[in-house]
């Protein structure tokens, strides 16, 4: 299935049947998310991959009792850092050095560019920037899930502070931004399963400038 066909196939599943997605598919999905684009390549977030049924049940009320939370195979919670620090930038530059076999000293300009852009911002502005990076990761996740023929539901509809408390995210230096339930659509009860996809026509969506 081509990527376009996969995106045509996907929709935000309203009900799932509780079946477990094959572990190899989940691993491929996580690999795709790992490769997502982000500003400076910093990836200022972590993703909790939750299979535990009791934990999902605790989260469900904080997500307005959406059934996909507990019907999913896995619940992904995308959580951004609470702050960008010099230490985190140093750790990232160290990773770049080791991965690309580049001397740390040769990465000074890169490090200074990241630090100059982010450390000068108030924490509130840092958080706004980091939350946007989470949305990039979610976009990658949705497309990858579709290509793997894994059903998914992106979720903004939850109470972040309650989810943070349930998952002890503050202690981890994180805060919940988005969630994504993955699993298999329940065709018997999902009222959206046969609904046609509604999108603006290309001639209205795109403005070509030649």
Give an overview in words.
With 210 residues, the protein is an alpha+beta fold. Helices cover 44% and strands 14% of the residues. It contains 9 helices and 4 strands, in the order ααβααβαααβαβα. The chain has a 4-stranded antiparallel beta sheet with strand order 1-2-4-3, sandwiched between helices. The protein is globular, with a radius of gyration of 19 Å. The chain starts with a helix and ends in a 5-residue tail after the last helix. The mean pLDDT is 97. Pfam families: Nitroreductase.
Distance N to C terminus = 32 Å
Low-confidence stretches: none
Please report which band the strand proportion falls in: under 5%, 5-15%, 15-25%, 25-35%, 35-45% or over 45%.
5-15%
The ordered string of helix (H) and strand (E) elements is HHEHHEHHHEHEH
Q: What is the mean pLDDT?
A: 97
Radius of gyration: 19 Å
Structural class: alpha+beta
Strand order of the largest sheet: 1-2-4-3
- The proportion of residues forming helix, as a percent range, comes to 40-55%
């Amino acid at each position: 299935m081509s990527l376009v066909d996969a995106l045509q196939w996907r929709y935000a599943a309203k009900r799932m049947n509780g079946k477990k997605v094959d572990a190899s598919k989940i691993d491929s999905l996580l690999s795709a998310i790992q490769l997502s684009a982000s500003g400076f390549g910093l990836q200022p977030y972590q993703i909790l991959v939750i299979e535990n049924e009791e934990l999902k049940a605790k989260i469900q009320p904080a997500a307005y009792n959406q059934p996909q939370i507990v019907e999913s195979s896995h619940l992904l919670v995308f959580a951004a850092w609470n702050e960008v620090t010099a230490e985190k930038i140093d750790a990232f530059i160290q990773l770049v050095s080791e991965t690309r076999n580049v001397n740390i000293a040769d990465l000074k300009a890169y490090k200074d560019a990241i630090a100059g852009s982010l450390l000068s911002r108030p924490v509130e502005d840092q958080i706004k920037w980091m939350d946007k990076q989470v949305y990039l990761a979610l976009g990658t996740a949705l497309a990858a899930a579709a290509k793997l023929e894994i059903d998914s539901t992106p979720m903004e509809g939850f109470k972040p502070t309650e989810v943070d408390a349930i998952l002890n995210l503050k202690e981890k230096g994180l805060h919940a931004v988005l969630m994504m339930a993955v699993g298999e659509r329940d065709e018997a009860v999902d009222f959206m399963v046969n609904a046609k996809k509604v999108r603006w026509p290309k001639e209205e969506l795109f403005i070509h400038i030649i």
